[in-house]
Structures are given as C-alpha cells and as structure tokens.
Amino acid sequence: xxxxxxxxxxxxxxxxxxxxxxxxxxxxxxxxxxxxxxxxxxxxxxxxxxxxxxxxxxxxxxxxxxxxxxxxxxxxxxxxxxxxxxxxxxxxxxxxxxxxxxxxxxxxxxxxxxxxxxxxxxxxxxxxxxxxxxxxxxxxxxxxxxxxxxxxxxxxxxxxxxxxxxxxxxxxxxxxxxxxxxxxxxxxxxxxxxxxxxxxxxxxxxxxxxxxxxxxxxxxxxxxxxxxxxxxxxxxxxxxxxxxxxxxxxxxxxxxxxxxxxxxxxxxxxxxxxxxxxxxxxxxxxxxxxxxxxxxxxxxxxxxxxxxxxxxxxxxxxxxxxxxxxxxxxxxxxxxxxxxxxxxxxxxxxxxxxxxxxxxxxxxxxxxxxxxxxxxxxxxxxxxxxxxxxxxxxxxxxxxxxxxxxxxxxxxxxxxxxxxxxxxxxxxxxxxxxxxxxxxxxxxxxxxxxxxxxxxxxxxxxxxxxxxxxxxxxxxxxxxxxxxxxxxxxxxx
Length: 493
Fold this sequence. Notes:
Layout: E1 12-14, E2 17-19, E3 26-31, E4 34-43, H1 47-64, H2 69-84, H3 87-98, H4 102-122, E5 130-131, E6 139-146, E7 149-153, H5 161-173, E8 176-180, H6 186-197, E9 206-208, H7 213-222, E10 226-232, H8 235-248, E11 251-255, E12 260-264, H9 270-282, E13 292-298, H10 299-313, H11 334-349, E14 353-356, E15 360-361, E16 371-372, E17 375-378, H12 385-388, E18 395-401, H13 404-411, E19 416-417, E20 421-423, H14 427-436, E21 443-444, E22 460-461, E23 464-465, H15 476-479, E24 480-487
Parallel strand pairs: 7-8, 7-10, 8-9, 10-11, 12-13, 12-20, 13-18, 17-18, 20-21
Antiparallel strand pairs: 1-2, 3-4, 5-6, 6-24, 11-23, 14-17, 15-16, 19-22
Helix pairs in contact: 1-7, 2-4, 2-5, 2-6, 3-4, 4-5, 7-8, 9-10
C-alpha cells in the first residue's frame, strides 16, 4: 500500500487557500503499524492561525447562514458522494494512519457516508413551532437560527466519521466551522475537508487548522467569536476545555470516556456473546469510547464463557492491517501502548488473573509497530483499577457476579455512562436492565459499539458535558438558537 502523494505536505485551509502555519514549524505523521513509514508532514499551528481562521469564518457566516437551508444540505450530499466514489482510498488511508483493520476501516467509511446523508436531510427539518396566542390578532411562531462560528475538535480513533457528523450538522444549521483534527490523524481529516472543497462550498465555511491542543485547542476554547465548541476526546482534556469555555459563557458539547458494561445472564447464547465481546473489545484494538471493557457474567456460566472467550481470542489474527486477513492491528502510538501495558501490570499487582495476552508483541512483523496482544483478565472486582478507569486498548476485564442484581449494581458502579449491553432472552430482565442502566444508550444481544446515525449518540455521568446529543434528530439543538416571533397586522388594536 503506497502513501498518497497528496498527503506528503499537508497545509492549513483558511478561507480559500491552503497555507503554512505562521510558526513555520511542522510535525510528522507516521504509520502505527510501522513507525519507520512517514505518512505526511503537517502544520504545527498556533493561536495566530486560529485567529486568522476565525476572521475568515465570521465573514463567511454572513452569507452562509442566509443560504436556503435545503441548499446547504446539498453540499453535504455532494461531499458524501465524493467520498463514496473514493471509498478504497479512504479505507486505505484509515488503515495506514490509524492502524485499523480493513473491516474496521471500511465500516468507518460507510458510517461516515450514512451520517452525512442523514444529516444533510436535517437542513430540510430545521423546524420551529406555530403556537396559539392569547391575542386573536397575533401570529406567534419560533424559528431556528445558526449559533454562529463553531469550533470542532475531533479524536484520532474515529477521525473520519466523528468529524463528518459534527461538520455536517453544523453546516446544515448554517454555522461556519473551525476544524481542529487530532495531530495523530490529520491527513484523513483533511480529505474530508477536500471533499467539501470539491463540491464548491464557499470559501471560509470550513477552515482547517492542525497543531497541538495546548495552542490550537486552547485558542479555539478562548476565542470570544467562537460561539460553540463540539469536542470528542479524553475526559481530562474535555473538562479542561469546559472550564475555559464556561468563563466566557459559550456553548460546549463533549463526548468523552466510557467503561461500558457487557452483562451475560444464564440463558444467553454464549457463542453469540463471545463473538460480540471480541468485536466490541478488540475491534479497532479496543480504541473506542463504546468498546466492551467490562464483561459481567453470572457465576453459573462463568467458566464456560471464559473458556470459549479465551479460545476465540487466541485465534485472532493480530498483525499489520495492510495484510489481508488481519483482524486486529496496532494501537495508535508509543504513548498509548505504554499506558495500556501499565494498566496490564496494575491489574496483575491487584490480583487480577491473566487469562490470555498481557504483553507487547515484538517479534518479526511486529518489531516496528505498537502491537499489544489482545488481553483478557478474570476475577476482576469493582474496586480494581481496570474495572474503573478507561484503558482505551485491547484489554477486557471479566467480573463474576452472583446474580442479576449484583451484575446490575456493578454495571452502574463507574463514573462513566456511555454504552452498555445485556445478553439474555429474558424479556423481564432485559427491561429491568434498559430501565435501570446508567448509560446514554444501551443494547440487548448486540455489541456495545453498535450505533446508527438516525439515533442520538452520547453519554451521561462523566462521559458527557453539556447535555446535547450528536447525530439523530436532536443533533441540531447544539448548533442552533431559537428565535420567537410575534406578528400583528398593522392597524389592528
């Protein structure tokens, strides 16, 4: 697989021009499966670059928000079509830049296209209400208007789809965008911007600035003319940005960590459950906020479940994702790999029992990449570190509960509240789980990672800040403000 020529020297997009940073500095993006492979050189931007982008976005906003809303949606549809015509290129770039397997990369591209098409339709659904007045001569109604220039800060683990649905929603609502991608995955992010450029999107509607969160991210958070910021990433960064944004009263939306419970009851289909546990825990090397992190299985079936899970995990094909048949690739970088390995050592010290994995892979094709063996621990208790903290890697903790009530208690015994799932054919217990689980969305007999763009996505507790949801029909709430209108014909008293 070759590195695309168009990625080698990536620039910022400010207005209509791809430009170098005012700092004159750059950084290099490498392949996590083989760190010797350089994928591109990107701009190490700073506050000045953000300020320039905001001025351009403010100017573009004046005309963009007045564009007929359904016409704004057409740009999104055309960008989605552009990506669909180049599916293989986008898949290959995700494989190289993120280390996703072919199946995971393809799933993200498909998810991107579906989300963009759905959210393009929101431009035709920016509805308000007509409300009766106490005055019979008064016509009263509400209308939605764009909140203004928005900042969009996206993570490296799902760099295409998450950016796509944030940007598409903002554009549908009439906002202009300052887009800061993760410094680990800026190249595929720039391709999304290029897709919009190819549609003839007016200059300044999307502005693209790469660089560190300490300068670019903070500048977005602090700029008085950025009226809302949508962030996906770690809890620490999200909380820090929220504190900055709160000082100036801007709107903030954050989707952060997860520690998602996967509950298995006595009547579960164990073959299905173990397949889904592997898909949720080791798909994308476990680097998803919705990943299966904690399996809570009832004691009566625990040994059978763990034995079957171990067998399947040890048959996973872990390797360079450019190779056909690879099911799990590397983690994103050395820092992430070291953090995951540290968590594994902590689990051992806290008397977790290692079932399989638990080490870095270094032999042969693994030598120059960041590979961690798919890891399963058992006999984990709720007070252990790996039962509470998000590892963001290919590590599953199995907890053995005495009964459904204990499983339910343990499922909710974390600071996060993103996704969850239960495996059972017991309708009564399914409904108890649905009604009592502390999570933004949940599943029955389905992987914790499953979602569709026409449904709201987001979490509660320590996972979410702001109370807004992404995708789904409520996504537009974050990017719009209501205006109430009263009309009384002239001359009426």
